[in-house]
Amino acid sequence: MTSPRIKVLIAEDEANLAQILEQFLASRGHSVTATNDGRSALAALRAEAFDVALLDIVMPEMDGLEVLRNVRADPSPPEVIIITGNGTIETAISAIRLGAYDYLSKPYRMAEIDVLVRRAWEKKQLTKENALLNERLAR
Amino acid sequence: VLEVVRNAWGADECALWLQGPAGLIRAWATGADVTSLAEVAERLAAGQAAGGALALSPLMVADRRLGAITVHRTLPLSPDERLTLSTLANMFAPLLSHAEYSHQLEGEVDARAREMDEQRRFVQLVVDSLPLGLYVIDREYRIRAWNRKRETGMQGVSREQAIGRTIFEVLHRQPAHLLRAEFDDVFSTGKLAQFEMESTITGDRRTYRISKIPMRLDGTTVTHVITIGEDVTDWRESQERFSQAEKLAAVGQLAAGVMHEINNPLATIAACAESLALLVDPMKTPTGRSLDYLRLIDDEVHRCKRIVDTLLDFSRPKPSHKDPTDVNAAIRQTLYLLKHHPRFKAITVHTDLDREIGLDVRANAEQLVQVFMSLLINAMDAMGDRGTVTIRTRRGRSLSEAVIAEVIDEGHGIPRSEVPKIFEPFYTTKAPGRGTGLGLSIVYSIVTEHGGRVEVDSTPGKGSTFRILLPAGPVA
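^ inputs. structure came back:
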């Protein structure tokens, strides 16, 4: 089975980290776009459809949780994975409450992110299929 | 005299009337009691010296009327006799006035003395009721006042034994030349001197604040020095606890801020190492090493992460979920977890747990285990893996100290100067790699979050006792 080409958005204000993560995920076969602040992340998410968004919490302009709050009501929102620099349980809880798929604290292993991205994508596929089935049943 | 006058003149009555504070009184009389008070008062007011059977002469000193002398005879007095009577009155008046005055003076002196005595007793009582030791010395260093507090206690000397002797004789334990210098300083500068001193005379270490106050009897030169000693041990301890809590909070905040910034570069380092590992071709010979090194980078990064997480735990202790908890059970669980530790096997553990203790405190059992784990590991490290560590629990005397748990080791102890630092994050005396210096910080943070207190007694070379005092906690 060939791995799916997942459309991933990275929002990470640490430029070096964003670049390495982008290269890593691209090498894993994903289609990756990297942004360095919350506002451009939101703009990118509104401009085209992404499967998964990796959002750092602490970012200039707009933080990751704010971006999540903005996109979750969109018609086909991406699955969001929140990434935080201070691993407090409170931020994790609020991220999940806001509808994030999962949560990771820095420093992380990129292999873990790859796994999470794939699982998030699968969930999104299931959600899509469910919606389709529901639609058919309703007809 | 009146008796003689009555007999000589053949009078019925001779009387002396005196003006008292409550009005005219019949002070002395001889013969029949025929003259009434009202009659005399009326005559005096009218200034009538003679009339009918009653002759009267007022007793005057300057303009003051002290009273009167009256003679009652059916036959009125002749002018000569009246003159004699008034002469007699003029002689009497100053005498009476003088007697009255000295009598008054006597009463006044008495009253004044009573008043002064009362005042003296009052001042003495004030001085004796003070929760302070107080004494006064004069320029010869002789003790002039010595209050009750200085009479009581281990170092007590009775007032009788102290007053009049020199301070050097009475406080013979203190070096005389130092004591003299302290007093001389106040005598010469005329300024209040204050300092703190520690004493272990009563057994435990107490802190006293000593004030030497200049006293000037004539208002100009210092004639006496008042010395006041106040036991400020409790105050000092609570101040130290407070400033320690403040300091730890500040350190924690600072550390949390720094640590937060550190996670970002750590994430980049870890990501670089991971990417590099993917680029290494495992088939080429020198690469085996490279992969080891990259794994090392990864391991160390994650060790940093653990330290950061622990520090964040310290600086922002999570308000944990608390249930009625058995402290003894938490200790047993800690011992169970440590049982298989090879280093733990080398030492002797003595437990002395109060069986009365049940679910006495509201606490987070896991966090309590963490507290006892840290304390036991520290005890092992302090003892160099030999000796006895004692864990003791008992019930406290109040709700705020419901259960008291002690971990007592026979280790190297903590120098007194180091005690205030031991709860600071990263303070450690252990060899590099043996401890992060966060254990006691976490203990402090957890116990404080539970509303409790950590106390330390330590004697260098003998060992340390860490005492955890936990409150019963809010009623659910």
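The mean pLDDT of chain B is 84. The first helix of chain B runs from residue 2 to 9.
thumbs up if we can close this ticket
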